[in-house]
TrEMBL record, chains A, B, C:
<feature type="binding site">
    <location>
        <position position="78"/>
    </location>
    <ligand>
        <name>L-aspartate</name>
    </ligand>
</feature>
<dbReference type="InterPro" id="IPR006131">
    <property type="entry name" value="Asp_carbamoyltransf_Asp/Orn-bd"/>
</dbReference>
<dbReference type="GO" id="GO:0005829">
    <property type="term" value="C:cytosol"/>
</dbReference>
<comment type="pathway">
    <text>Pyrimidine metabolism; UMP biosynthesis via de novo pathway; (S)-dihydroorotate from bicarbonate: step 2/3.</text>
</comment>
<feature type="binding site">
    <location>
        <position position="253"/>
    </location>
    <ligand>
        <name>carbamoyl phosphate</name>
    </ligand>
</feature>
<dbReference type="InterPro" id="IPR036901">
    <property type="entry name" value="Asp/Orn_carbamoylTrfase_sf"/>
</dbReference>
<keyword id="KW-0665">Pyrimidine biosynthesis</keyword>
<dbReference type="Pfam" id="PF02729">
    <property type="entry name" value="OTCace_N"/>
</dbReference>
<comment type="subunit">
    <text>Heterododecamer (2C3:3R2) of six catalytic PyrB chains organized as two trimers (C3), and six regulatory PyrI chains organized as three dimers (R2).</text>
</comment>
<keyword id="KW-0808">Transferase</keyword>
<dbReference type="InterPro" id="IPR002082">
    <property type="entry name" value="Asp_carbamoyltransf"/>
</dbReference>
<dbReference type="GO" id="GO:0016597">
    <property type="term" value="F:amino acid binding"/>
</dbReference>
<comment type="similarity">
    <text>Belongs to the aspartate/ornithine carbamoyltransferase superfamily. ATCase family.</text>
</comment>
<feature type="binding site">
    <location>
        <position position="50"/>
    </location>
    <ligand>
        <name>carbamoyl phosphate</name>
    </ligand>
</feature>
<dbReference type="Pfam" id="PF00185">
    <property type="entry name" value="OTCace"/>
</dbReference>
<feature type="binding site">
    <location>
        <position position="161"/>
    </location>
    <ligand>
        <name>L-aspartate</name>
    </ligand>
</feature>
<dbReference type="InterPro" id="IPR006132">
    <property type="entry name" value="Asp/Orn_carbamoyltranf_P-bd"/>
</dbReference>
Length: 312, 312, 312
């Protein structure tokens, strides 16, 4: 079954296949679309505009039918397990679920048991595979390949869903990764990059990938943090001037304007921030197609409920 | 107008017609679908995954257009009556409403006044007609008819929306109904069955219909209740072994695993729990078709607003 | 770009064009529909049944695809600005946004900057242009034109989104406007009408336009307010008898029955309250068509993200 729960388990060729498929949807407006109605549901247990609307758009572009599911009005309120929720949806005819969940690795126990593919739209401080893939797509559109590229990932490395997967994947694909950011947010476990001083990093790399400060996950006095952060580790107007002429800026958004990046740089010529969002739709189309195409061909479309586990 | 607010007011032949229509949607993938766009809205004033998603799926399968309606973002927050909400929806073109509401018999004052059919998706501790109908469909698929069948309804009989309607309908259709469960949850007003000891009931019947303990409606110490309940009245692995070889298990779900039923029995060979959910979609298609078909034929499509009550 | 943020900036001929377009959708079931999929999103930061469902219905009737957006589950929770939310939606392919927001004139800073048209579905105590337009449509259907008509606007003039725009537009179109209501709710800034005693107003005019008391925005003892209000300023059964034979009643709804209007008058022969709701769908179709048609023709469909503001 074509779950997508993490990028780490994808082979290099699988990653490139997804990028090619996304690029195909983008440029030719071509690619797989189901011949008959197919059904998905989006289960968002955490706030999200970008990711959620992006999946909804991808589903509509593919011609899928989305069954609305709101956590606040669901039986999850009655204490139903995620497994039972998914199997309930499967039994009524939903053929894949997109899930964002606050718990790290929520998918681990599930992926062997559920009868429809799970697409992970973010788990706690863990993975966010479609974000990683859309970052890769945006970089490849710019530079053609990853070999020899230098990428700086800047900011709250420890709490970021994006930093770990991106560092791992970029390294795997041949890029060199640097990290920069506050001492207290270093991620010692992430061995796919080298720490550099912020100013050195900015001047060195082809891609400056800024991370979002997740104020909602920190307890410090946030206005002080914000102000200090910008001058110390943010992409200020001064720092942007020192970037190489061809270098680009990425940010997963939502942006804290004036914190990770100067307000006036969000839509500057180097910025690919809105381009990333646009690419997000094509990546999600590719990932949904990857999950649903085998089902359309009947390969795991054996939702033969009642599932029959024998009881001795 | 083809409201469906309770099963009690349905004639036997009407019940069988709905079951036949549902079976037709299921097996032949055939049955009525509207020729032009038709519009419905789902008004859920209480949490629900199964019922709500099941109606959404049924609507999509029929090719209906669902106008989103969220209680939390609606004028219900401004104190609007249910009647005015329904007539508002009718006036903008909604042709039928599916309603779940915490108030028993919320539909009583409404059904004579509103201008579009109401499909009751559950009222307080009252009725849940589509649940009853999907239970009947699941039983008929197994045994071909209801005559002579023995059915045990087990659990919180007093607070269950399902118990009363099911007992009444099964009796009407020729089955014999037994009840089992805690003394304090007996429903003295329900005269369509006989109380039996849980173990005797389990060994006797063709269908063991478990009820959900609605922890959210009880005040007792729930973990104590849960533990005692399973050994005293739950379907344990031991009890399951004493069921007749052909007997089946039903549960309206969401299941409290390890309480009403042992965890490992939820998906056992006898269980029709996920089958019930699947049947739920077909039943809802049948019920929606029953409400909307006459409107399509113009039979009550006279939404000639402004309605003109003369004032003397 | 064809924003619709206020009616005040519309020329008379633009107003009449929108009314004609709406009438065309209503009577001939004709008018513009997009040839390919087009995408909109509804951003409701305040409760609303009527307006929201009406826009959803208008979108469905036009064959648009609505991308679901719920404030409670969005990044607005993470402090994202409205501008960034809109540009995010634009970058994933949304082509117009419908916005209701509690802040007066939220659109002012936005309308010059965003890359897709905004349709204002109500801002604080400010504007509600589609409500104004549907009121105008309902009046024109009745009387053919506005010249020489007398209209009374009755009630909470100071807090009403409707009163100011309607008075201004009706005056512009040739009608004479009167106001009536409690002293403390007079709106001294509104110079498009003359204050009259309630009983005099009722007997004089062709259209009695009642305003909703927004109990949720007042602090007084509301039941006392309600009772006094009805006898002092409400449309009682007695007052209705003194209306001219051809006069009609409007109310933007939701109605507080027995307060602004006697319960039994809500659906009386003179009432156009549900007719207004019906017209609301056609007005919104016209307004959406006005925003989207130029985009379909490629006139502002240059969503060429990344937008490139040069940074010196």
């Amino acid at each position: 079954m074509k779950h997508l729960v993490t990028v780490s388990t994808l082979e290099t060729n699988e990653i490139l296949e997804i990028l090619d498929s996304a690029e195909n949807y983008r440029t030719n407006k071509q690619g797989w679309k189901p011949e008959e109605k197919m059904f998905v549901a989006n289960l968002f247990f955490e706030a999200s505009t970008r990711t959620r609307c992006s999946f909804e758009m991808a589903e509509q572009q593919l011609g899928l039918t989305t069954i609305p599911f709101e956590v606040t009005t669901s039986s999850v309120q009655k204490g139903e397990t995620l497994y039972d929720t998914i199997e309930t949806l499967a039994s009524i005819g939903v053929q894949s679920v997109v899930i964002r969940h606050p718990q790290d690795r929520y998918y681990e126990a599930l992926q062997e048991k559920v009868s429809i593919p799970i697409i992970n739209a973010g788990d706690g401080c863990g993975q966010h595979p479609t974000q990683c893939l859309l970052d890769l797509l945006t970089i490849r559109q710019e530079f053609g390949s990853f070999k020899g590229l230098k990428v700086a990932i800047v900011g709250d490395l420890r709490h970021s869903r994006v930093a770990r997967s991106n560092a791992e994947m970029l390294t795997k694909l041949g890029a060199t990764v640097y990290f920069a950011g506050p001492e207290e947010w270093k991620d010692e476990e992430n061995r796919h990059g080298t720490y550099l001083d912020i100013d050195e990093a900015i001047e060195t790399v082809d891609v400056v990938m800024l991370l979002r400060i997740q104020f909602e996950r920190h307890e410090e006095n946030t206005s002080e943090l914000a102000q200090n952060y910008h001058s110390r580790f943010g992409l200020t107007v001064e720092r942007e001037r020192k970037m190489k002429s061809h270098s680009i800026i990425l940010h997963p958004a939502p942006v804290n304007r004036g914190v990770e990046i100067a307000d006036e740089l969000v839509e500057c010529e180097r910025s690919r921030i809105f381009k990333q969002m646009q690419n997000g739709v094509y990546i999600r189309m590719a990932v949904l197609a990857r999950a649903l195409q085998p089902i359309e061909r009947g390969l795991n479309n054996d939702n033969n409920y009642q599932k029959c586990y024998m009881v001795k």
